[in-house]
Amino acid sequence: MKPWKIRKKDMLSLLLQGPKIWEAYNGLECQHRLPRSVHKEVKYAIALARKFNNEVLRPMYLDIDLKCMEDHDYLPWDFVKKAGEWKFYSLFLPKLFGGAGLNFLALYPFIEEISSVCSGLGHIIFVHYLGIATVFPSFNVRIINKVLRDVAKSEKEGNPRLLDLVITEPEAGTDVQEPLLIGRGRIGTIAKKVKGGYVINGRKIFISNGHLSYWHVVMCFEDRNNQGETFLQCVVPNGAKGFSFGTHEKKMGHLASTASDLIFEECFIPDRWLTMLLSDPKVKKSKKGSRWLFHTVIDYVVSSSRAGVGAIATGIGRGAYEIALEHARKNRVAGELLINHQWAQIILADMYRNVNVSRNVYMESAYTNMLSGLFKLLLKKPIHYFMKFLPKWYFTLISPLLRLKIATYLFRKYYFDWYTTEERDVSSGWASIAKYTCSDVGLANAGLALDLMGAEGLRHDNGAEKCFRDVKLQQIYESTNQINQMNLFCCLVGNHLPEVEFFK
Amino acid sequence: MNAVTTDSLAAERQAFTDLAKDISVKKLVENREEHDKYPFGELFADAIRDAGVVGFYGVNLPLDFGGVGMNTGMIAAILEQLSEADASLAGIVFTNAAALEILNAGAGSAKDASIFQSVKNLGSTPLAFPAYASPEEIQMPVMNKNGAGIFFGKINNLPLGDIADHAVIPARKEGENGFSYYLIDLSDKGVRKSKPIVSLGLHGCPAVDITVENVPAQLIGVQGKGGSYFRSMQDSMSVCAAAICTGVMRGSFNDALQYTADRYQGGRQIIDWGQVRMMLANMAIEVKVAESCLAAACREMNTAAPGWEKSAQAAAIHIGELANRVTSDGVQLFGGNGYMKDYPQEKRMRDAKQAQCLLGMTLLRKINYIAQIIEGK
User: Fold this and answer.
1) Closest residue to B275, CB basis, from A259, A343, A482
2) What CATH code would you report for B3-117?
3) I want to staple A250 with a disulfide (CB 3.0 to 4.6 A). Which of A141, A157, A319, B341 is the partner?
4) Which residues in chain B have their CB less than 8 angstroms from residue A246's CB?
């Protein structure tokens, strides 16, 4: 046999020796499975976001940022409605649930585009989808259908009802977002079983979009000493008895997107708003166990959201680059146009490199989510084309079927029983890579922009200092970069090494 | 221990650092969030007045004109102390001291001190000065052909332009290559001021854009020598820029150390997680390096050691970069709280980035630094 020939059996063995194709070449793996229309949808989403930036965002974003600085009580309702007029809150919802059905892969470049102008306002849209990505992994199709159809309907009526994710607590930030630490967390928000539902008591903080949302996807626990097996997720609409808004935080950046205190005082949640209950005997019967389910639900959420944080950070880093480039073209330093100094050119080249490396990383994570994360079902060509080509009225017609328990059963069968730990680790690990790489690179770019612009960069009216303030948040939320480093180690570095102990 | 005061200091020097500490504790820490607010309200009114009363604005003013007559090493000691609590007042003291250094340079070479006599309240009211940009970066006002000392044009980003009585600004005379520094009265009817500029950091030391038209201006020193006065000022004020960054870094580190001991996650104090300790270790090392670097630069300057200028410039550039890393980690170790204005860390991160720009853009200072070495200066 010629030396360059490889038997099929040997090839498989060789491919398993180093980085595995399904772990390290996500884009390559994903692209040949993508339906052609997905490509078109991604291009459409990018073009749409650019149109929105030109017509809506650029003329208003610095003024809104300043208004938020001047008046802490100001909330950007005008923008919320404007984005609703552009149908952004239902754009990426599957048609099955009343949305426009644009593929989720397109969401990430869309977010990058919006964030390249203003991540604070872009965040309002992104966090809404974060709320959706939180309610999805419960796969409680009855509630998902109800909530998402309400989103589409309210948007059409001009009064959009947004979603948010309610998880962080005063004493438990990292703990509630890291399944391996949850057992040690100091949990304060507890749900207690009562007749017909649950009563929630506690306080949640740093809730992005809290004051701007209508549907709050709440994660809490029944037993503070056994969190991993008593996880409970529910949706709480505005006006629910015992639910109220506290203050919202005074932040360094991301001023347009509120970080709210939400207060639950004897807040009664009827059983019909429970999306997931790990102590439910039917859920407990799962062969994989409650803790595995909890870990998987959390990882479905963070795998999709952390790639989104990567996209936001990339957008901010790109915005900083574009502002610095324009500045360098127009301003003279030491008698020369700044852009004609070689040292300035290499900084601009570095910034351009940073943006593109960053984009590749978050897209790898997005591809992983399509292959082995929350969106994997949508990548199946029959499902994709079924959703794409059938008209909306058809899905409205079959919508009552989604109330049947069999719908939830089938989704959970696919997303839990047929889901593997290896798939979860790859999507979660890559999401962490995306989150902490893009945010580090984004901060580096914002710093470089300020370095290049000197005193002019420090002024609010030039936009660069806003990038610097905004991008720092990307290193902190959706678990700090340090926790993401640990998660990456747990998922893809130490996961197959028997001697390794995590969070020792 | 203040890095600049690690040398054995005279009682007078120690008294100044004690005063700075007293103001930090009594005036700055308590009202830090209030002072940082936008829109700008009653800016530090008390703290600014107190800083003048205790003589912070006259430290490098000659004794003959009511100042203390000390060098910028003393100012660095004060700034380092103030910045540990809140760098905004340090920004005010810095701006005034930089303006005085231009006056000192001009008076020194011209053998003429008349410029000091024409400024009322010198030493008790701060002077405005474009401290964030070197003359190579800015568009300067131009001298009017019709009369000496009358000119028109615009100066962007003039710190203290809104509250100072006088400003030291550069201007160019038509047909001349160099530029000169001038003293102008900011209450003159030909001076128009913008609203305070919303900036990244140092909110308590706000800048304005000013437009000047037919404003009387008094030449500082010799016509066309502005470049050499700026370089002289840049050398002596570099230790002050480094001191602000060192103070901010130390404040960030000390608070991070305390917070990580108080905060529990994963069932233990977060200071007990190895990853957190590594970050704290990096911060502690960088703070120590900055302190050593600053102390050495001050020592060389005080003893007029050969090449002290380069040591001071290098210290300012290097410590400015360290401060950015340390304050960013300082926010990170506070987690979500670090991003909130209820805690001091986010302000320190913004202030450190703003302070890095004092004396001009860092990249240009680097290029000029290596040029000095290549040209054997």
Assistant:
1) A482
2) 1.10.540.10
3) B341
4) none
